[in-house]
Records
---
Amino acid sequence: MTNLNYFLIRRVHSLTGVIPLGVFLIGHLTTNSMAAFGQEAFSHKVELIHSLGPLLPFVEAAMIFIPLAIHILLGIFIAFTGKSNATDLGYGRNWAYTLQRWTGWAALAFIVYHTMELRFLDEPGARALTGSVLNGKVLTAGDVFFMHLAEEFQSVLYVLVYLLGGFAVIYHFANGLCTFCMTWGITVGARSQKTMSWIALATGLLLFGMLVAAIVGFRSAYDSAEYEAMRALLGGLPH
Amino acid sequence: MADKKVHLIVKRQEGPDSAPYWEEFEVPHTPGMNVISALMETRLNPVTRDGKRVRPVTWDSGCLEEVCGACSMLINGRPRQSCSALVDNLEQPIRLEPFSKFPVLRDLMVDRSPMFEALKRIKAWVPVDGTYAMGPAEKIDPAQQQEMYKYSECMTCGCCLEACPQYNDSSAFVGASAIGQAYLFNMNPTGKTLKDDRLDEMMGPGGVVDCGNAQNCVRVCPKGIPLTDAIAAIGGQVTLHAVKRLLRQ
Ligand code: HEM
Ligand code: SF4
Ligand code: SF4
Ligand code: FES
């Protein structure tokens, strides 16, 4: 492989982490945090996404699946070229380096589980239920998802999986912002790198706050009678 | 205090291919002694703590004033120079090990020639040799001189590589010192003529792109060289260089 090709591959890995994956992550958490404002607000956002119609799979592929696959494959290759030594040299950034790898693996496990469950198993079901009438109300895919997630988040285990998985992804992205700026030669001095780590911390906390808001929103909106009615009426979601 | 003792635990190894083992020594304490003078005591009286007479310990050293880098080893797990490691500042027992990222020649002495190879690879020199006189060199701005001076202090000791999680058997990474030197020689008005060659190397496998930004290198460098500044700066130079290569190929 030529040096230039190697360089481009490494930079593609670095870039995909921020654009589009990081941008998607911010958008995704923004949508979901709408759950804190209730079913209407959440469904409205979901409708907005679904209004892309037949374009949606292409947008998903370009914004998520293809860059994610590239980032993961290269990330795994890169992770195997490192030998973490944070227990011997416990400097802050050395732990950050080690955690970047661990959270990469955790994010991989979580993302596979999360997309399999919600995008590939539940989504077709939710779409099938779209347009059905429950208690005199025409359901949108967002409504069905909202009720479904409200039910799922009743489980403490489910909440924990999302908190831990979400933490891994958010840490990985936030620390990735710092290393991204070093990798590309944006923050060159120690001072600017320190400032960047505060900005990344604030970003990470904000994103984690959105995650918590979403979980609390879903959990507290659970209406067992309504959910049972949906399940009885329409057979619920395939599980 | 005549009977004060220094307790050393030394990782030993007969030759490059033999198995390592540990031996403990107890040597008399002298005021102001450093790890090398403690080791010299074991040479004077190569008897272990449990009274066994053994082969004297081998180590490497040169300047004895922290400018040559030859005496570098792991002291209580930290990569540093044994000549400037004062015994009184160390926790006892003092654990001495050879660097783990370089081939061991014997006991505490390692082969640091991979660092020399890395310097050759990035052409860490100023090309002034020719068949005719090249005239006087270009003047360098004092501020630039200050910036260059920091990097010129590198003594190729290897501490930054020993500490680096990306410098290991499964990676071709040249490590922080070579990146610092590429940065230094790219700043030199004459050295700059080889800038493209250096950046070509920095783009490829083992170049700056293999750094994982753990920043251990800058923490352990005994000369306080701002290696991570050089890494980020070279990262930026390489980006522009790649654009140039892409557009001109
Ligand atoms: C939501 C998903 C993900 C996002 C948003 C993301 C984002 C990022 C960002 C922004 C960086 C910093 C790039 C740089 O330092 O230049 C990064 C680095 C990294 N990512 Fe990811 N990532 C994700 C998933 C993964 C997964 C699943 C893995 C696989 C194990 C992974 C492995 C890595 C590794 C090893 C690095 C360090 C690269 C280096 O040091 O050069 N990432 N990621
Ligand atoms: S920043 Fe970390 S990975 Fe990069 S050279 Fe320094 S120690 Fe190695
Ligand atoms: S950069 Fe510092 S730690 Fe690395 S070889 Fe040079 S002097 Fe030693
Ligand atoms: S002997 Fe030269 S640095 Fe220690």
---
Amino acid sequence: MTDVTLTVNGEERTASVPPETTLLKMLREDLNLTGAKLGCDVGDCGACTVLVDGIAVNACLMLAGQADGKKIETIEGLSTLEEYHPIQKAFEEVAALQCGFCGPGMIMSTKALIDQGEDLSKQEIKDALSGNLCRCTGYTKIIDGVIDAYEDITGKKVPETNPREAQSAA
Amino acid sequence: MRHRGKGVGCMWYPIGFTVLANPSAATVKINEDGTATLLTGTVETGQGSLTVLGQIAAEELGISTDDVHVVSADTDTTPMDTGAIASRTTYVTGNAIKLAAENAKQILFEVAAPMLDVRPDQLEAVDRKIQVQYFPQRCLPIADVALQAQFVMGRPPIGSASYNPPTVAMDSETGQGKPFSTYVYATQCAEVEVDDETGQVDVIYMSAAHDCGTAINPMLVEGQIEGGISMGIGFALQEEMLFDDNGQQLNPNLTNYIMPTSLDMPEIDVDIVENFDPTGPFGAKGVGEPTAVPTAAAICNAIHDAVGVRITSLPATAEKVLKAIKARDGGEQKALPAAE
Ligand code: FES
Ligand code: FES
């Protein structure tokens, strides 16, 4: 057993786990934070996305021990009892999600992207979410939600593009 | 070289099968604060059915959707439902809910009629009020009527009902009959780009026009259509289960069973072609499964338009498309221009 101490959503949490425990397993089973989902357990789907020191990672691919001493953000840290996080609000507003299983991962990937503070185009948003699979929605309303959240949080605008032209230039 | 092409796919799809019993039941209870509780055996899988079913109950009772508390799918306690299958929920379960709400409302009308000095059939439920038709100023809050019904008249306003699209046996001689209650129709158009050196197909744009009867919640209808298109794109170009001779799946992971990501999705225009169906709740039919039906056909037609080859088995992977292009060119090797 190894003792692993994480700062999860601003709170220091310690658990004693077998060394092969993934960060996802520790979050879900030892810390009882079941927001990050176990989809594939092999890094394909992104349902387990959490932020480690601000970077979006697949928690199923990282050992808990590797995260020792690091700052972890999960979906549970975003909203308060009174209020949603602006990303969650934007997702709700456009009905971005359907079954919601991909939701925590999508939202954490979005947070990592917006937190970088770069100017974003629609294509860059699609790139950033390409590691998060969604079976239900076709991604369209999720991308709309990300654009709304980005514009709301940063006050910037995502440039309008004509997708039918843009694609053939690429 | 990359070639553009456009293609069209059309479909019809049946809603509410009638060859077997296909019932849904529901209970609607109006509470003394003017809200309502809806019990249904169907289950929400993300498509938004409970929202739509709550809207149907609210519309019938003249209250807001926020006033309806939906209790779903604990089969121990909720009324029977055939299931969240076959794109039947809005149509079949919706009809049951509308009838149940009507029954509950009838009790309110009977209780309110003497209070307003009219007959029950002269009343309507609008804006959280029971009011006299054409005389909206003669009205009572639903909460007051429900309270009166419950505690003074001793008639709690509860309605239960079931709906079963009339079962019609098929003629065993001819195989003819009426297997479904109603049908929906749709056309999708695809614009693709095909690379004739690699066979790679990119979907650039899709437009989708769907008839779903009355769109009770247009935003959710759009979500269903966009999701269906992504499934259709996977079906058309990417998704294939591969098995070895022992029936073992060769690609059991999402690493090698490839499904669409955000990068595979084209721009989509959705057009909801509303059409009132007299047999559906408030004219609604359904939208779920039909959304994925015409997509692959539209894409394969677009591939034909772009490079002149017919792909007749799915998915139209790059290998398959390239092979077809080579066969079209009589197997001659195409000379690649020298690199500059
Ligand atoms: S569960 Fe981690 S990527 Fe799928
Ligand atoms: S909403 Fe169901 S997987 Fe994304």
